[in-house]
Amino acid sequence: MTRLTRRAALTLPLALPAAAHAQDWRPGAQARIVVPAAPGGTTDIMARLLAPYFQARWGTPVVVENRSGGGGTIGTMEVVRSAPDGRHMLMGNIGPQAIGHSLFRNLQYRPDSLAAVSNVIRGPNVLVLHPSVPATTVPEFVAWLKREGGRASYGTSGMGQSPHLSGVWFNQLTGTRSEAVHFRGAGPLLIDLVAGNVQFAYDNLTTAIEHIRGGRLRPLGVTSADRSAQLPDLPALRETMPELAPYDVSTWFGVFMPAGTPAPVVRSVSADIQAFLALPETVARFTQMGGVPAPGGPEHFEAFVRAETAKWGEVIRREGLQMDAG
Question: Would you indicate the residue range of the signal peptide (predicted)?
Answer without folding.
Answer: 1-22
